[in-house]
Design a protein that fits this description.
The complex is a heterodimer of chains A (111) and B (113). Chain A has 111 residues and is mostly beta strands. The termini of chain A are far apart. Chain B is 0% helix and 52% strand. Chain B has no helices and eleven strands. In chain B, a hairpin with a 6-residue loop joins strand 5 and strand 6. Chain B is globular, with a radius of gyration of 13 Å. In chain B, 38% of the residues are buried. The chains are: A mainly beta (111), B mainly beta (113). At the A-B interface, strand 5 and strand 10 of A face strand 4, strand 5 and strand 10 of B.
């Protein structure tokens, strides 16, 4: 079945760049997503990328997609303490009906 | 701007008790989902409803039932709660099932003792 893998923790200093990595298994995924979860809250969509793109930039966020290696990354430039959260990578399942999530990467930003 | 509303926010049940988690969305979305979130496990799909009148099992459906009451509402029922069902439950909705954004509720924190 589909599987999405992420590293569990990342710790950075304020002002540095953060890079969160993800690998997925379903090569037929048309869209790949990054969600953010702040403590005690639900998930919010940060950004997504269409599978025919290699890169997408949205203000401080850069998403890179390597379709050959099934590798997705999220780069946050100038990381702030408010970026501390859990970040989830997600793909659509093979039927295209639901999102399959990774276990989430906890980003800790220290000042 | 309610979006996806879940009730209750917190619940403690005794083993064997039953309860229904309620979810409603006001975005006229066709598709709705129930996920559970456990530490170190990420989010796992319990059930989903691609459109009004249909429901399908997800990755972890055992011990749960769902009802898509109308286009707005999708409820999750635990018939006989077990400690293994202690989790945070999230409802989500999306306009369709293909590639559209999913919007999440704030979650229900359920403890089964």
């Amino acid at each position: 079945g589909e599987d999405v893998e992420q590293s569990l923790f990342l710790s950075v200093r304020e002002g540095d760049s953060s890079v969160i990595n993800c690998t997925y298994t379903d090569s037929s995924s048309t869209y790949l997503y990054w969600y953010k979860q702040e403590p005690g809250a639900g998930l919010q969509l940060l950004t997504y990328i269409f599978s025919n793109m290699d890169m997408k930039q949205d203000q401080r966020l850069t998403v890179l997609l390597n379709k050959k290696d099934k590798h997705l990354s999220l780069r946050i430039a100038d990381t702030q303490t408010g970026d501390s959260a859990i970040y989830f990578c997600a793909e659509r399942d093979q039927a295209g009906t639901a999102l399959i999530f990774g276990k989430g990467t906890t980003l800790s930003v220290s000042s | 701007n309610a979006g996806v509303t879940q009730t209750p926010k917190f619940q403690v049940l005794k083993t064997g008790q039953s309860m229904t988690l309620q979810c409603a969305q006001d975005m006229n979305h066709n598709s709705m989902y129930w996920y559970r979130q456990d530490p170190g496990m990420g989010l796992r799909l319990i059930y989903y409803s691609a459109s009004e009148g249909t429901t399908d099992k997800g990755e972890v459906p055992n011990g749960y039932n769902v009802s898509r009451l109308n286009k707005r509402e999708f409820s999750l029922r635990l018939e006989s709660a077990a400690p293994s069902q202690t989790s945070v439950y999230f409802c989500a909705s999306s306009a369709g099932t293909s590639n559209t954004e999913a919007f999440f509720g704030q979650g229900t924190r359920l403890t089964v003792v």
